[in-house]
Design brief:
Layout (H helix, E strand, L loop, with lengths): L6 H7 L1 H9 L16 H8 L11 H9 L7 E7 L11 E2 L2 E7 L6 E9 L5 E9 L2 E9 L9 E6 L2 E6 L11 E2 L5 E7 L3 H18 L3 E6 L9 E5 L12 E5 L5 E7 L11 E6 L8 E7 L5 E8 L2 E6 L16 H10 L9 H4 L6 H4 L2 E2 L18 H26 L1
Parallel strand pairs: 1-3, 2-19, 10-11, 10-12, 12-13, 13-18
Antiparallel strand pairs: 4-5, 5-6, 7-8, 8-9, 14-15, 16-17, 17-18
Helix pairs in contact: 5-6
Length: 415
């Protein structure tokens, strides 16, 4: 099996193995939502005039669907890239006999302008991204408002919009232009009895403001909510009034707290160099529509989840910004973690994200878990049961017979 659009790379790299498998009777199928069978020679010919599809599904998601359609231990040889961006969602447990063969993309480095915004000093702060197999890094540059002398970036004004372009650097391709964000990010922290929590959060937000040089207005209130906020941090047990409308709502989840002895895993990778201790949390009942768990504990339970409601997002936090609940606010990583959360939607990617992101998955992470479930546990399989009634009755009869024999012998001895 292989993805449409990838055969020109996969076949030369694995020609001997693929030809051998076909001679043994294996069929070639596309690794997409349809899993359609195709003649390999015809597929190679068609690919010359085909374009790589965009908006592609996660490998984990495709494997889960495929596994439900195959018998247990069915042999499958899968040929894909090892792009980390294609491994999203939960790793499935599989019943098939999977042999996975991967390759690394030839164009293993990409760079692009990820963000640009106006600073309070009326300069432009540009964030440039560079991705390679080991990691994706972001580097910031601050340039004058309009400075044609800059050799790395060029700026211009078109139809009232300030645009910035990246110049080609060392052969790396940078997207043509990006509109500079001249707005101010408005953040409100609402709290009542969690005032110290609010102070910890405000300090982290101010650190983000200083580090990024972005225009950010931070308000700390206990009533009289200001209008037109981009973010609202609702640090309270009381229900958020339905009249309050914001693009991003971060709220404390209610419930009886439970003692924990685990860690908070944050970030896209789910890991940090030194994860914060998690001492207390409330039960994380994920709401309908939740797209993902952004922060988890060591056991995979949600600590922070995001619910997508059209263009707005609700972030459900099952702990508190309190040292008694967790070590997050005392961590040196706290501003970075919150910055990743706040600025994630500000970062742009050229075209298909999975094509720009050149990070590769570790071979140990690649292997899908093998299920120990029986064939009868697999959906769609026939469940066979064994009728034990006859065995039970026979056993009962033997026990009864022996009991009568022993009783008869006992009476004879007494006579």
């Amino acid at each position: 099996m292989a993805e449409p659009g990838s055969l020109s790379v996969i076949y030369p790299a694995h020609k001997g193995l693929i030809d051998s498998l076909l001679k043994k009777g294996f069929e070639f199928h596309y690794f997409n939502a349809e899993f359609r069978q195709e003649n390999l020679a015809k597929a190679l010919e068609n690919e010359k005039k085909a374009t790589l599809p965009r908006g592609r599904l996660s490998y984990w998601s495709l494997l889960k669907t495929l596994d439900h359609q195959l018998p247990r231990d069915f042999p499958v040889h899968l040929f894909t890239s090892n792009s980390l961006a294609r491994f999203t969602g939960n790793r499935p447990r599989l019943l098939m006999n999977l042999q996975w063969h991967t390759h690394t993309s030839a164009d293993s480095i990409s760079s692009w302008l990820a963000a640009a915004y106006l600073t309070p000093a009326d300069s432009i702060h540009v964030i440039e991204a560079e991705s390679h197999p080991g990691s994706t890094s972001f580097k910031g540059y601050t340039i004058a408002y309009v400075d044609d002398r800059n050799t790395r970036f060029s700026t211009r004004i078109k139809t009232g919009k300030l645009l910035i372009s990246g110049r080609t650097q060392g052969g790396a391709s940078i997207n043509d232009q990006l509109e500079v964000d001249t707005s101010t990010m408005r953040i409100t922290i609402f709290t009542d009895k969690f005032y110290n929590d609010a102070l910890y959060l405000k300090a982290a937000l101010q650190a983000i403001q200083q580090f990024t040089a972005r225009k950010i207005a931070i308000s700390l209130v206990s009533n009289n909510m200001p209008p037109g906020q981009d973010w609202l941090f609702w640090l309270s047990d009381i229900t958020v009034p339905a009249s309050i409308k914001v693009n991003n709502l971060f709220r404390y989840e209610g419930g009886k707290s439970q003692l924990k002895h685990t860690h908070i895993r944050t970030g896209k990778s789910g890991l940090t160099a030194d994860p914060a201790l998690l001492n207390k949390a409330v039960p994380g009942n994920l709401p309908t529509g939740t797209s993902n768990s952004l922060w988890k504990d060591d056991f995979g339970n949600a600590v922070l989840s995001r619910e997508d409601l059209g263009d707005s997002h609700v972030y459900h936090f099952y702990s508190r910004f309190d040292p008694a609940w967790n070590g997050l606010v005392w961590s040196d990583e706290f501003p970075r973690i919150m910055g990743e959360l706040l600025l994630e939607n500000d970062l742009t990617y050229p075209g298909d994200h999975s094509l720009a992101d050149k990070r590769i998955i570790d071979t140990l992470q690649l292997q899908a878990a093998t299920s120990t479930a029986s064939v009868a546990d697999k959906p769609g399989s026939v469940k066979k049961s064994l009728d034990l009634s006859r065995i039970i009755w026979l056993t009962a009869f033997i026990v009864f017979f022996l009991e009568r024999v022993l009783s008869f012998n006992h009476k004879n001895e007494m006579v």
